[in-house]
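pinned: reference chain
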Amino acid sequence: MTQLVIGRYRVRTAQSGDDLHAAQALRHLAFFGFEGLDEDPFDEICTHILIEEVAGGRLVCCFRMLPLTRGTEINRSYSAQFYELSALQRYDGKMVEMGRFCILPDIKDPDILRLAWGAMTRYVDENDVEMLFGCSSFSGTDADSYLDAFAMLKERHLAPRRWLPRVKAPSVFRFAQKLRRRKPDARLAMSRMPPLLRTYLLMGGWVSDHAVVDRQLNTLHVFTGLEIKAIPATRKRLLRAVAL
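pinned: its structure tokens
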């Protein structure tokens, strides 16, 4: 993917060990709150996307992508460590796992998320990708803080039964079961929804019926899928306007 420049930021693919090191450092700061390196074996097989300030080159956002030729490769993914994904093995199109998404703490510029999706849109179009998926994280492991958000996911955004991930992780919050009678407060639910997940949902994305309790990263996360053909035409035009 060629470099994309819009306003104060540029988006590019990591090209060197130094680029990967910078992404790992940003991830550690974003996930753990102090300096270090967040690294795992998946880094070696992923494409890493960097969003930097044009002036000075400061890294403000990064994420990684793992391309799969079809669903039979789903067990190669990071997500497969936490979710039983045998249903998605039947998926016959190209897939990309989007993971380790983070933004430099204390930066709230919405253009960064917009550019991230613009970069992803360009990648999807250039590679004929048919499904995006990954883990969308809520900060902390206290599910009670997000009951309205989980109730909204249960009511409006559960995965189609044919693709539904099953429980694999030892510690999960089965929100679809536990909150089946709870009616969400829509305003509160959206205010507690992670920005990346909110964007997935606006494009027609869906989630697992349970959240994994990840104490290593101090998060609750849900498996999230998005079939490209399900994205509304108006939103596709907006995304492609950024990606051009």
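why pinned: The chain has seven helices and twelve strands. The CA atoms of residues 28 and 38 lie 5 Å apart.
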